[in-house]
Specification:
440 residues; mainly alpha
């Protein structure tokens, strides 16, 4: 039997133009910010994800505290983070091929189950007082491997829950869930660590996965006719790479995310130094700065979700988000006062959310479902790819020159990407997207 034409070779469907979406009836005004919640499946996802992500942030704080208690070494903290990143760097591109050829809901359930079991194992060995750094490193690597499939799978699964019409709003709300959990999880961990210890936080995180797994299983999702692999993994991966290379809007979005995420976002590595040494505070000050960023991100998600889903609005969100983020990072680096630093963090959170969610939206609206998993895996890879290098570079500059110079350099790099975005802005107009469809 002749193999069907690949998505890259099928020109009309490979890269659909990003067309304006008509406002949904009955979801205007304030309710427009939450219009994706009119879908039962997304309501289930929203609730389950929020509970699970709060648990995840709790575990991140408790795990960092545990590693510091066991080793008293900043290097070991970095080693645990590296162990988590490495599988994502190695596997995510191949995971994207799998996402495009399996039932995405089942894949996400499997990945979430692996992470749940990992949390319970960590809770058990910590409670039994037999935990060592090597155990934390190995479990971090296992979580990274599961995340390699979970992250692109969840991003590609959004369209199956809400359809293309409400996809931009669903992406904004998904970002709001993440950042809302980022504001709540660490605060809860700070209170619970003294009461129930690290093992208790790990156990509660394990329980939180039950919520998201149940929400996925309770959804009423029509069976998806995923194409069979039908050929070698390398061939399917090559299709995705060819699409990204030939579709210039997608290529430029991923390029900018790689640079901004790899170097601009890494200013956060030095936030504890700012809190203690430059703003003359302590752990509470650090918590205030993180909370301010979370509040900004949630506020940005609500504002972004309230706007009409149109090509013009997407471009405005992209530009405003990137420039707002860049200038706020520079302002944070220069600020000598806590109130100004917190204000800068609020703007950072709103700008980061607007830029990342809009990039995600533009990528998903432009790609066909046959390639969605592979493009989302490249999005994950772009977001994480340079992060280990960038964090080491920022830390080195902060140590040998000054933390302020390092943070302002992060903002300057992001600002340069903003000017580059202005230069290639015509690529994201509907008529240009029509011309940029992938053809043989």
């Amino acid at each position: 039997m002749q193999e069907p034409a690949s998505p890259v070779e099928a020109a009309p469907e490979a890269a659909a133009p990003i067309a304006p979406v008509a406002p949904t009836v009955g979801t205007t005004g304030r309710l427009a910010a939450f219009r994706a919640l009119r879908h039962r499946n997304f309501r289930l996802f929203f609730t389950g994800q929020l509970i699970s992500l709060i648990g995840t942030w709790m575990q991140m704080v408790a795990q960092g505290w545990l590693v510091l208690r066991l080793s008293n070494s900043p290097f070991v903290l970095g080693l645990v983070a590296f162990a988590n990143y490495l599988p994502i760097l190695l596997v995510s591109l191949f995971a994207g091929v799998i996402v495009d050829h399996v039932d995405r809901r089942r894949l996400i359930v499997c990945a979430q189950t692996v992470m749940m079991l990992s949390a319970f194992v960590l809770a058990t060995i910590t409670w039994a007082r037999v935990v060592e750094v090597k155990h934390v490193v190995m479990l971090a690597a296992l979580n990274g491997l599961a995340s390699s499939f979970d992250m692109p799978g969840r991003q590609a699964f959004l369209v199956e829950m809400v359809g293309r019409e409400d996809l931009p709003n669903a992406i904004a709300l998904n970002s709001m869930i993440f950042n809302g959990a980022r504001a709540l999880g660490p605060a809860l961990a700070g209170m619970l660590l003294a009461a129930i210890g690290e093992a208790g936080c790990f156990f509660l995180n394990g329980l939180s996965f039950i919520a998201v797994i149940w929400s996925l299983l309770a959804m009423d999702i029509a069976p998806r006719e995923a194409p069979k692999l039908g050929s070698m993994m390398w061939h399917r991966l090559r299709e995705g790479l060819i699409y990204v290379w030939r579709h210039r809007p997608t290529f430029n979005l991923l390029l900018m995310i790689a640079i901004v995420s790899g170097f601009g976002f890494q200013y956060a590595v030095l936030m504890p130094v700012f809190a203690r040494n430059l703003l003359h505070g302590g752990a509470q000050t650090y918590g205030f700065l993180l909370a301010a960023q979370g509040v900004g991100a949630v506020s940005g998600a609500i504002i972004m979700g309230s706007r009409p889903s149109s090509n013009k609005a997407h471009i405005q969100n992209l530009v405003a988000g990137l420039f707002g983020l860049s200038l706020a990072i520079i302002g944070f680096g220069a600020s000598p006062w806590l109130w100004l630093s917190m204000t800068a963090q609020v703007i950072c959170g709103a700008g980061l959310m607007s830029y990342m969610a809009t990039t995600n939206t533009l990528l998903q609206l432009a790609v066909s479902d046959e390639l969605r998993g592979r493009v989302m895996s490249m999005y994950v890879l772009s977001f994480i790819g340079f992060a280990p290098i960038g964090s080491l570079a920022v830390g080195s500059v902060g140590e040998h020159l000054s933390p302020r110079i390092a943070v302002m350099a992060c903002g300057a790099i992001s600002l340069l990407c903003g000017f580059y975005l202005l230069r290639v802005l015509d690529l994201f107009k509907p008529q240009a997207l029509d011309r940029s469809r992938v053809t043989t």
